[in-house]
Amino acid sequence: QVQLKESGPGLVQPSQTLSLTCTVSGFSLTSYSVHWVRQHSGKSLEWMGRMWSDGDTSYNSAFTSRLSISRDTSKSQVFLKMNSLQTEDTGTYYCASGGRYFDFWGPGTMVTVSS
Amino acid sequence: DIVMTQTPSSQAVSAGEKVTMSCKSSQSLLYSENKKNYLAWYQQKPGQSPKLLISWASTRESGVPDRFIGSGSGTDFTLTISSVQAEDLAVYYCEQYYDTPYTFGAGTKLELK
User: Fold this and answer.
1) Residues A80, B105, B107, B65: is their CA dihedral positive or negative?
2) CA A70 remoteness from chain centre
3) Number of helices (H) and strands (E), helices first, in chain B?
């Protein structure tokens, strides 16, 4: 049974760095990609980037300069780090598995950027 | 980036009604080599994460009721719910995966009339 679960700090101060973890089960990170998708409250979805099964990464150019995705295959975890956070980065962050579309999603973790 | 435009933004429906919603892309999502349309539909209920309903414009995921029908090709796509049920009240998003960045429409919200 495929499962993904995001975890993170909940509250981040402006200009600081956001660190999120996606822990997966039911599949191997060396077989399937994991993506990060963001949703502002009440708004649509925004693809941020992906960790490919071979360890390569792809990013949405809207985030390239401040976004980094990495993984620890031994722990079945994928990490998101995004620096220079602003209030407009407030939202729910999801990790999702899939090739180009998203088969399975985590429940999401809400991040508020505020001092 | 490919822009996805969904209409209407919201729709009030009654149980049993047939519902159609539109998704248009700023460029064709039809890949000539395999004749596949790189479009997916998702359903998001309040407080939940999105759920994949349809991929390749018309292929229903396992377990998705057959009242959900995806159609269209190129730049124009439609999601039809043949007979709306109460549990279908949600926001529906289309997503193009033809090219990165993968992009979503703004959504169509189904509400109760």
Assistant:
1) negative
2) 10
3) 0, 13
